[in-house]
Amino acid sequence: MSEFAGQIADVKTGRIFPGRFTVENGRILSVIEDESAPSDCLYLPGLVDAHIHIESSLLPPAEFARAATVHGTVATVSDPHEIANVCGKAGVEWMIRSAQDTPLKIAFGAPSCVPATPFETAGASFGPKEVAELLDLDGVSYLSEVMNFPAVIGGDLRMLDIIEQAKKRDLPIDGHAPGVIGEDLRTYAAAGIQTDHECVTLDEARQRVACGMKVAIREGSAARNFDALWPLLQESPDSCFFCSDDRHPDDLVVSHIDGLIRRAIDNGVDPMVAIRAATRNPIEHYRLPAGLLQPGDPADFIRVGGIHDFHVQGTWIDGQPVAQNGKALLSPSEIPPINEFAASPIREERLQLKAVDGAKFATMLAVDGQLVTGREDLLPTVKDGEVVSDPDRDLLKIVVVNRYEDAPPAVGLIQNFGLKTGAVAGSVAHDSHNVVAVGANDQSLAAAINEVISSKGGLAFSSPETTKGYPLPIAGLMGEGDAWEAAHAFEELTALAKADGCPLRSPFMTLSFMPLLVIPSLKIGDRGHFDVGSFSLVDPWIR
User: CATH homologous superfamily of domain 46-287?
Assistant: First the structure.
């Protein structure tokens, strides 16, 4: 039996009091008030990331756990749809096996939209039968984000049948409805969708609460919505979670959900409201097997310096220390990688784009810190009848190469990447995870793409002076190093892109969302340009 003493946060009553608690056989045995308890530390339930794709950390679950527990995370609600799009059911099962090597309480969902749309090539396709099989797996406990919101709103029977599989099992159903408001939102919620993490404005969030939905306030490496949404914590405290959605390793080694609690408190949010959004709210909604520091609960808790010194000093899961003073105590774990990658090296001439006399081209506009893109119809720069990248106009080629079979690449134009001589490429390309690249010239583009292909997945930067890559042998999404190694490699590649002129805070994260066809407004997949508003492939030439 172990005893702990200090200030204790009771998320059931909302009180913070001096006290002691005992732990035996992995559970909280007792909690008592004690005025003599130390005042220089605070114990509270462990933290929960209420929506994350672990694959986006570039780490397998066991390595992700080593980094996340340092910041007080004891549980995650994890959608494995990245690896599912690449490797199908076998990929989800691989994630579950990897998670078994860590005490972190990872609740996996059954991906509901694989592929995200029928307008791209992925490595798998899930219908109601496949989703039902996943929902019956040990380790799967909810239906992952329903991204095909047009199908739900339009009453598509196949999509509604997928949702019905979760309803029949009385499992939570996650949503994904960027920009959906009004009657469409009410229809979406009425179908059984219970949460959304895609809100970017306070009005959107309020509308979801009015429909009875929970809102996961997102602050990830690409989408950063905390500043817009934190007032919802004060308005509707019981309807809020915290999540990161996608968090790259360079951010994960700095902070996780603990950072959002600090920011909320600094903004004047009641500390207990902020703590509940990271503990009680998601634990109760998703019925997670994580404790709330109550007698009889699993002993999942953390120690911080105090409400106004909210830095994690220690993390315990089932009564065992898993991180102390910024150091991971969990051992590394490895299982053989899984992958699907069939693309062959590409030649420069395959990246050519024939010009259309006098026609403008629908150009994607990358937005720093967001998943959305804008659109502007521009006259391209043309040389010898071919459209070329024009760094002087920050008008660069964007390319998507099918990783699953040899096929002609899709080529478009994009602004706001700012590269002068080089190119960035990666096989982390939501959600089908083909190879996506942006570059200042075809030579650099081909070199960066081929660096990724040669590793059967990875991230790369190439310029006339250098080519540098980081292999991701696990489904082309995750590496075999730890978080700190991945963070170093990621920072090195980011620095190369920025030195070449890229102004984006996280060039590779932004790059990875350019093919995501379910986030507005103009995107590009392996089959061409996609207008999210009309939910259809479109001709980029404006004749």
Answer: Metal-dependent hydrolases (3.20.20.140)
